[in-house]
Amino acid sequence: MSVELGKFKLEPFSFGRGIVVRTIWHLFNVLVLRNPFVVFSSLRIVALKLFGAKLGRGLLMQKPISVKCPWHLQVGDYSWIGEGVWIDNLTTVKIASNVCISQGAYLCTGNHNWSKRDFPMRVEGIEIMEGVWVGARANIGPGSVLEKDSIISLGTTFTGRAKESTIYYYSQENLITKSRKFL
User: Fold this and answer.
1) Which of 8, 36, 96, 124 allows an S-S link to 143, with CB 3.0 to 4.6 Å?
2) Euclidean distance between CA atoms 9 and 102, whole angstroms
3) Are 59 and 40 in contact (CB under 8 A)?
4) For the chain, how long is the longest CA-to-CA vector?
């Protein structure tokens, strides 16, 4: 079945805040989070908290990063958000404690349903549990749950449920999984 974009309806999507708050946030996002000259992680944390993000102790946020809707973001204690990370969170992204989101990772909560002709939007949250490592340039899709101590390796695109203590990475042929307990 092919997509017919002529049937696509741009329905108003609720970002969870009004246009004024979203506009001010986008300005903060550019001036504070995405700005490579803002060297202090604490300034990014303060900006996110001002707009409703729930952030734990000892969080380190490299520069630059981007967060679409801080009011939908929760990060636990002693986690790391690497440089160039994009949290494209149209809905809730929950990141537990002791999580590493490496440089260039992309967390995406919204996508279009390409299996339907009218290409409707689908939005699902992401949950990342304690001890997870999301590798550099990894992509995490809508509705994903990354269970405790799982690893999504360098450049891997992942959507679904990552089992506890399991490593996910791509070979040239397909997605490979290995238990961390036996490595």
Assistant:
1) 124
2) 36
3) no
4) 52
Closest to 67 (Cα-Cα) out of 55, 80, 53: 53
Element (H, E) at 120: none
The token pair at 88 is 């494209």
Whose structure tokens read 């999504």?
Answer: 152
CA distances (Å), origin 27, targets 14, 34, 44, 66: 19, 10, 13, 11
Per residue in 77-104, pLDDT (tens digit) is 999 999 999 999 999 999 999 999 999 9
**Long-range pairs of 160-163 with CB within 8 A, sequence gap ≥ 24:** 162/132
Cis peptide bond N-terminal to 120, omega within 30: no
Q: Is 14 exposed, middle or buried (0-12, 13-18, 19+ CB in 10 A)?
A: exposed
Render pLDDT for 15-73 as a digit per residue (tens, 0 to 9): 778 889 999 999 999 999 999 999 899 999 999 999 999 999 999 999 999 999 999 99
Question: CB under 8 Å to 142, separation ≥6 — which residues?
Answer: 108, 109, 110, 111, 122, 123, 124, 125, 126, 159
**With respect to CATH, is domain 40-164 assigned 3.40.50.2300?**
no
